[in-house]
Write a structure and sequence with these properties.
heterodimer, A: 71 residues, 2 helices, B: 558 residues, 1% strand
Amino acid sequence: MSEHKMKPIWFFVGLILLVIGGLITLNGIYLVFDPPQRVTVLSEMHPDIWWGVIMMVFGGIMYFKTRNQTV
Amino acid sequence: MQAIGLSFIDWTIILVYFGFVLGIGWYLRRFTTSQEDFFLAGRKNSSWVAGLAFLSANLGALELLGMTGNTFKYGMYVAHFYWIGAIPAMLFLGIYMMPFYYSSKINSVPGYLKLRFDEKTRVLNGVAFAVMTLLVSGINLYAMALVLHTFLGWNWDVSMWVSAITVAIYVGLSGLMSAIFTEIIQFFLIWFGLFLISILGIIEIGSLSEIMARINEYSSQISFTTLWSSSSNPTQNGMFIHWGGIVLGLGFVLSFGYWTTDFLVIQRAFSAKDLRSARMTPILASFFKMALPFIVIVAGLIAIVLSNDPKSGFSLLHDGGQINYDSALPLLIARYYPSGLVGLGITALLAGFMAGQAGNISAFNTVWTYDIYKAVLNKKATDSHLLWMGRVSTIVGVALSLVTAYWAKSFPSIMDYMQAIFSWVNAPLFATMLLGMFVWWITPNGAFWGLVAGMVSSFSMYLAVKYEWINESIITMSNVRSDMATNFWRAWWAWLICASVTIIISLFTKKRLKEELVGLVKGLTHENHDQFIPFVKRPEFVALISLIVLIILNLLFW
């Protein structure tokens, strides 16, 4: 086994959820001001905004708790 | 269906995912310097990491498109795959079988057969597993191509080649370690990417009980919303199966055959850092397995309601006059997800397919390298040569799975195809493993010929039904037709034939000495693991909780 110290998997999970959640939230906010042509069922609930925020919070906790850890 | 035009944000999310998994493969490459790193991820994972990977290796095309589609086709009975068809076997693996697997320090499941029986049994199973793995890997490619074709209008061939090359790169770089990393990322992406469908579907229709009530209105004669109460008469449930077929075929043979002997999932437990972590691996995974119906089964039930409501404008795709059940999940994504979430939903599916394929390829390269190449072709291979062979076999395995992907296209439902393959290989193997691990006088010749008889009989039954040489009612003991019921019953007969032949031949052939079997057979091995750990922290206690949850879920949807 290599002697290098490896970042834990939770760091990577947190990072990708944070990034993708952030992209979805920002895009959802943009769509409020510039509604899309393709209207989806329940779009009035803006699921992209609140779901993106949930992803960011979940991913953010994992990322910031593990960013200095190695295994 | 009109292909959905992806927006810039959707493409960005998909590209972020592809860049991420390739980057992880590159990052982990520096930690992959020996064969143990490549094939067993260095044996240093915690039970949580190994447990999530254990579950995620099984969470590919099968769980997503196939199960949602099968719920549309068969109803709530598909939940049996997640509950009775998985949990008892996972707990049995953790409590009783893992100590023998892990403690013998083998690299693969066929490796156990070599220690317990002999080389010929190991090679037979190794070859069968390698072939099965490539076939299953082809399904993942096919399913991925379906998603890209449905959403983006991409060419089938291009879709399959792009995904296959990506998997070949990141598994080739760092083996099981990158496969495990991407499997865990996939697990979270699937929950975040697909669970929202169930939430929005329930909001649109009203409630889960409203969904059940409407399905019962549409189909008053056949139950699509119960688990057991309609199982005494096969004509009264959507799967057209008797409870005996569910319990014996799915709950016992297919489930135990898959979860306790399939190296694809067990390889993840082998990567655990110690025996307790290895035992906890399938037990922790069982909780997540039980939760998955809240994605796939609920989505399938939502699709049934919507397709029976003319005002919803929802209907499944048709291919050549046949309903394409596997299109249910992609169509629900298109219905509920605005741009951005569409990118997430597609990424979740892509992640599932790619991780499923990576799982198969990482298991294939291990079995090929240890149980076929080193065992038969090059017995003196060095550590560095085996590491090289692992990388080469990864690329060859991906290429071969591309070939099998085209075969998978000819089946109307992915799951039926999957069950057919499992009953050829895993069902008989479970009989061999069970007898080998728990009965000391089972002989090498008994195990080998029993395995041959089980595999040949299962394959023969499959051909006989497919080409109508026999009436399938002989196998299912029922007059109503169902591919799934046939698969369950065929698995049961294959298991029974394998077990019977193994026992009979063992009675008349030379037995191994008991001293040679210490550590490999229960009853001959002194088991003192976890004796200093408090009961509430032992795998047995956690398994008990899992079992209680399983019983509650079955009673809830009885």
